[in-house]
Amino acid sequence: MTNRQCEDCPVKELQTIHRLIEERAFAKLPEEVREPLLEAKKQMRLALRGFIGHVLEEKKSGHKKQPVKSRHIGLE
Question: If you ran DSSP here, which 8-state letter would residue 9 be given?
Answer without folding.
Answer: S
